[in-house]
Amino acid sequence: MDSACDRLARAAREALALVLPETCVGCGKPDSAVCPDCSARMTGGVLRQEIEPGFPVWAGTAYTGTARRVILALKNEHRTDAAAALALVLTTAVDAALLELPGAGPRAGALLTLAALPSTRSAYRRRGYRPVDVVVARTPLRLEHPLAWRRQPADQIGLTLDERKRNLDGSLLARRWARERSFLLVDDVVTTGATLLESRRALTAGGARVVGAVAIAATERRVRRVADEFGFVE
């Protein structure tokens, strides 16, 4: 739960954004948080990969170029005004997941529950918000937080996949109310997939079911473009 200081800091940032000139975080053009050209550059097609057999991940775009700049602005520069454009990208990944997941149908989107991955305490203190929460708030999707830290992992920057797995192993636990629930995990960026794997382990150990994961973006070495039969082309 946010503290009073967190809420005041967030309110101050939002007020400051109202008085400062708005520029595109992707290219610097005036008058929009993400200009139409940059928005178009982030919609090149959904990416899909099974990071382990039976664990599919759909990403709305590749983590390069404009998409990378916009996501980093949201995460590191307090540009929460870019969230609406990223919400459109994330929604395309969710749509692709719904087309492929068993039992998906016209009402599946209304019933779908996304599960957020928890931010570390240091990341939350630095930002004052959770990037995925800010983005999903701009969609009609429901987001829940069924995971909690059992222990805080070390910084993941520079670690290999095996090192990240060891760093995260056993670090998360599922909340009791998640038992017998089904979730689609959601992340901002998928790189090695180690955090998603630990999240699935924790939820499964807690009696929940993970049907897959979605992300705003993913590094292209982890994913391939979704085939044309799912309605998304390069």
Descriptive notes:
The protein is α/β, with parallel strands linked by helices. Helix content is 38%, strand content 21%. It is built from nine helices and nine strands. A seven-stranded mixed beta sheet has the order 4-3-7-8-2-1-9. Strands 5-6 form a two-stranded antiparallel ribbon. Residues 105-110 and 224-234 have low confidence and may be disordered.
Shape: globular
**Spatial extent as radius of gyration:** 17 Å
CATH architecture: 3-Layer(aba) Sandwich
Q: Please report the first level of CATH classification, the CATH class.
A: Alpha Beta
By DSSP, the count of extended strands is: 9
Main attributes?
234 residues, Rossmann fold, two-stranded antiparallel sheet, 38% helix, disordered C terminus
What would a concise description of this structure say?
By secondary structure, the protein is an alpha/beta fold. It has helices at residues 4-19, 36-41, 65-76, 83-100, 108-111, 121-127, 131-136, 161-168, 194-205; strands spanning 47-52, 55-62, 113-116, 142-144, 147-149, 172-174, 182-190, 209-218, 224-225. The protein has a single domain (44-227), classed as Rossmann fold, CATH 3.40.50.
Secondary structure blueprint with pairings:
Layout: H1 4-19, H2 36-41, E1 47-52, E2 55-62, H3 65-76, H4 83-100, H5 108-111, E3 113-116, H6 121-127, H7 131-136, E4 142-144, E5 147-149, H8 161-168, E6 172-174, E7 182-190, H9 194-205, E8 209-218, E9 224-225
Parallel strand pairs: 2-8, 3-4, 3-7, 7-8
Antiparallel strand pairs: 1-2, 1-9, 5-6
Helix pairs in contact: 8-9
